[in-house]
Amino acid sequence: MTVQNPDTAWFPGPPLLQAVGLGRSYHAPRGAANGRARTALSPTDLVMHDGDSLGIVGESGSGKTTLVRLLTALDAPSSGRVDFHGQTIVSAEGSVRKQIRGKTLNWFRQHTGVVFQDPYASLDPRMSVGRIIAEPLIGLGVAGDRRARVREVLVQVGLPADFSERYPHQLSGGQRQRVAIARAIVHRPTLLVGDEPLSALDVTVRAQILELLVSLRAELGLSLIMVSHDLGVVQELCDTVAVMHEGQIVEHGPTARVFATPEHPYTSRLLASALPLPGA
Ligand SMILES: Nc1ncnc2c1ncn2[C@@H]1O[C@H](COP(=O)(O)OP(=O)(O)OP(=O)(O)O)[C@@H](O)[C@H]1O
Ligand SMILES: [Mg+2]
Q1: How buried is 55 (Cβ within 10 angstroms: 0-12 exposed, 13-18 middle, 19+ buried)?
Q2: Structural domain includes residue 269
Q3: Domain hosting residue 20, numbered range
Q4: Which of 96-105, 239-248, 263-272 has the highest mean pLDDT?
Q5: SS3 category, 277
Q6: pLDDT digits 0-9 by tens, 61-91
């Protein structure tokens, strides 16, 4: 199934991000009774343009993380490829895979920031907050005053600039997630990707971080991919939504349309099992 925002489908030039026949299967563990490979993601096509915001929803095990890890080049596909601005970032073809290392991947990393679910596991406890946030600048070799940039971005995510001296264990869960977001935007990416970035947080903090993401998106003009089991989050943040079920995108379209008049029975079931959406 092709995921394309109808509002931007006419855009000339290569899309921001394009998946072509992107699939991932895992080999069965050695000695397993059923030795067949498991398909975590069936071949999927997906197109995003600059400024798009795509939500990915679906039950546990439906392939959301698998898809996002491929789209961010954290994993290599078993089939197909991912292009960013027309350049192949990851591909199942061995010869292409070799070429992709180095410059192109570095260029891609400069344009993307990723936030994960667990703000406890994702921050190195031995590093100061300042060092954690500076990490992408160091890794990507971004020139300039790193300290100044770290202080600037701390304020941008609603933390005092002197938090750079602290260590993760001295922070609350919400503060940690703000640090994780600061790290994801410090190198000024154009695409921000979140895999359940709000689900480990309690309700009040979740609302604050959601508000932060909404304002950062507008302020920085970010394109967005947001995995969430919370349909309210997707409704708030994403113009389009893709619904995943058993390793496939079964429905996609403008979020308001999909949530109001779902076309696939699985989407209807997902909506029925969710809490009522604000304004519904
Ligand atoms: N490294 C792996 N080895 C084997 N199977 C895997 C691996 N990673 C994921 N899978 C399988 O792929 C399928 C999709 O997993 P994935 O993590 O993408 O689901 P998800 O939609 O992100 O679920 P959740 O909402 O629980 O995070 C699952 O059946 C999972 O068990
Ligand atoms: Mg997941």
Answers
A1: buried
A2: yes
A3: 2-273
A4: 239-248
A5: coil
A6: 999 999 999 999 999 999 999 999 999 999 9
Q: Residues lining ligand 2 (ion), CB within 5 A?
A: 65
Q: Is 64 in the pocket of ligand 1 (CB under 6 A)?
A: yes
Of all protein residues, the one whose alpha carbon is nearest to atom 5 of ligand 1 is: 26
Alpha-carbon distances, residue 71 vs 3, 49, 218 (angstroms): 14, 14, 23
Q: What is the pLDDT of residues 22-63, one digit of tens each?
A: 999 998 776 666 667 889 999 999 999 999 999 999 999 999
Ligand 1 near 26 CB (within 6 A): yes
Question: Which of 186, 173, 64 minimizes the C-alpha distance to 122?
Answer: 173
pLDDT at position 268 over 90: yes
Kindly report the protein residue whose alpha carbon is nearest to atom 2 of ligand 1.
26
CATH of the domain at 249: 3.40.50.300
Which residues contact residue 270 at a Cβ distance below 8 angstroms, ignoring those fewer than 6 apart? 57, 58, 59, 231, 243
Is 280 domain-assigned?
no
Residue type, 31: G
The total number of structural domains that make up the chain:
1
- Residue 279 inside a domain? The answer is no
Give the number of other Cβ atoms within 10 Å of residue 159's Cβ: 22
Cα–Cα distances in angstroms (integers) from residue 218 to residues 50, 164, 176, 213, 222, in the given order: 13, 25, 22, 9, 7
160: closest CA among 115, 180, 130? 130
- CA 56-61-66 angle, to 5 degrees, is 60
Q: Are strands 191-195 and 112-115 parallel, antiparallel or unpaired?
A: parallel
